[in-house]
């Protein structure tokens, strides 16, 4: 790639950014707080794709970029790289999550029951245009259940293992320093499942949905059934240098297990989890995880394809870079076109001259 220096270019670039900032207006703490409280699912998406759980900073990134998701994720990831790692939290167990929503499409009755939680799945998609006419929409209050659901729910996969439907878990202790970290290590292929799930956890939601949807429509080798979908809050438990463990706070998480087929007498499970509440992403990501084991190289379900093409910062950066000057490379294309036309014209002229000089029969 080549760039052409232009007089006044630096000033023009500065003014272009000022124009963008002027359109956004003043950004203050009140504006950031409004974004954080009124668009929690959008904030969750940015935190998940940036691999950083901080609602305030995610809201700031959205305010600073005018809601351009790829830019918001980029600036939040960039800020994350400046922060030290001070501890590694204890692994989160499924049955320890403070569960607010938990459903299964594979079983009607599951241990703990179906918990619908907060969802629009069963609502009418009607735009509340009355709000624009000065009639604020106030949601009706939630009616508390006489018997509240337990805050913690058992793992459905563990229940299936007890029935011999899912293969026994092969759990091995892993030292904290041996846990791979995709934010600090490059993604290499073939990727370990830990790297694969980490990459899907912070992958771009739209890209994951597109490829997961392709698998669901028949371009993969497994059509998913949601074994368990869960939204909840996970306690971040860390160890103090003195040896005691304590909870540093909670983070919202989404997780999904999907199943489709039997292998060696057991149901296979695809899994995905991410920061924040993002159901469509974890279902699509778990579908890709389920399909990747037997996917042929070069297919959209192969790990090298979907992990590269759902990496939001790299994908958006590569696409956006085509807006930058490509004068030299494009000029070479034009030169080649002109040379080809000139050679064709010369060949045509030579052929015509030869035809005119040949004696008539």
- Determine the fraction of residues in helical runs and give it as a percent range: 40-55%
Mean pLDDT: 86
Outline the biggest β-sheet. 4 strands, antiparallel
SSE arrangement, N to C = HHHHHEHHHEEEHHHH
The side-by-side strand order for the widest beta sheet comes to 1-2-3-4
Structural class: alpha+beta
- Helix count, DSSP H or I runs of 4 or more residues: 12
**What's the end-to-end separation, in Å?**
57 Å
Number of domains: 2
Roughly how many Å is the radius of gyration?
27 Å
Low-confidence stretches: 1-6
Instruction: Tell me the strand percentage band.
Output: 5-15%
Description of the structure:
The protein is globular, with a radius of gyration of 27 Å. α2 (29-38) crosses α4 (55-65) and α3 (40-50) packs across α5. β2 and β3 form a beta hairpin. It has two domains: 10-80, no CATH class; 94-310, no CATH class. Helix content is 42%, strand content 14%. It is an alpha+beta fold and 361 residues long. It has a four-stranded antiparallel beta sheet. The N and C termini lie far apart (57 Å). Mean pLDDT is 86; it is low at 1-6. It is built from twelve helices and four strands.
SSE topology:
Blueprint: H1 9-24, H2 29-38, H3 40-50, H4 55-65, H5 69-80, E1 98-103, H6 156-162, H7 193-201, H8 205-219, E2 225-239, E3 245-263, E4 266-275, H9 279-292, H10 303-309, H11 312-320, H12 327-357
Antiparallel strand pairs: 1-2, 2-3, 3-4
Helix pairs in contact: 2-4, 3-4, 3-5, 4-5, 8-9
């Amino acid at each position: 790639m080549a760039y052409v220096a232009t007089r006044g270019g630096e000033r023009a670039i500065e003014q272009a950014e000022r124009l963008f900032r002027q359109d956004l207006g003043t950004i203050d703490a009140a504006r950031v707080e409004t974004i954080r409280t009124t668009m929690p699912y959008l904030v969750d998406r940015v935190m998940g794709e940036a691999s950083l759980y901080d609602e305030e900073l995610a809201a700031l990134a959205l305010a600073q970029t005018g809601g351009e998701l790829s830019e918001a994720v980029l600036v939040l990831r960039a800020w994350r790289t400046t922060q030290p790692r001070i501890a590694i939290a204890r692994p989160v167990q499924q049955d320890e999550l403070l569960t607010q929503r938990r459903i299964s499409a594979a079983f009607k009755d599951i241990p703990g029951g179906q918990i619908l939680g907060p969802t629009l799945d069963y609502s009418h998609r009607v735009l509340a245009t009355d709000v624009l006419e000065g009639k604020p929409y106030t949601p009706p209050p939630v009616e508390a259940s006489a018997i509240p659901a337990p805050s913690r729910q058992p793992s459905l996969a563990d229940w299936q293992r007890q029935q011999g439907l899912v293969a026994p878990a092969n759990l091995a202790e892993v030292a904290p320093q041996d846990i791979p970290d995709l934010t600090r290590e490059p993604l290499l292929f073939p990727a370990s499942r830990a790297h694969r799930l980490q990459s899907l956890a912070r992958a771009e939601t739209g890209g994951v949905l597109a490829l997961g949807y392709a698998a669901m429509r028949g371009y993969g080798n497994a059509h998913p059934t949601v074994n368990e979908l869960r939204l909840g809050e996970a306690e971040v438990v860390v160890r103090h240098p003195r040896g005691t463990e304590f909870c540093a706070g909670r983070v919202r998480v989404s997780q999904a297990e999907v199943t489709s087929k039997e292998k060696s007498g057991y149901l296979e499970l695809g899994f995905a989890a991410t920061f924040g509440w993002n159901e469509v992403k974890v279902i699509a990501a778990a579908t890709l995880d389920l399909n990747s084991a037997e996917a042929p190289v070069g297919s959209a379900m192969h790990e090298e394809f979907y992990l590269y093409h759902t990496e939001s910062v790299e994908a958006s950066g590569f696409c956006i870079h085509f807006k930058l000057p490509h004068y030299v490379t494009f000029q070479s294309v034009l030169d080649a076109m002109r040379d080809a036309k000139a050679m064709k014209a010369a060949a045509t002229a030579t052929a015509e001259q030869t035809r005119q000089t040949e004696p008539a029969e």
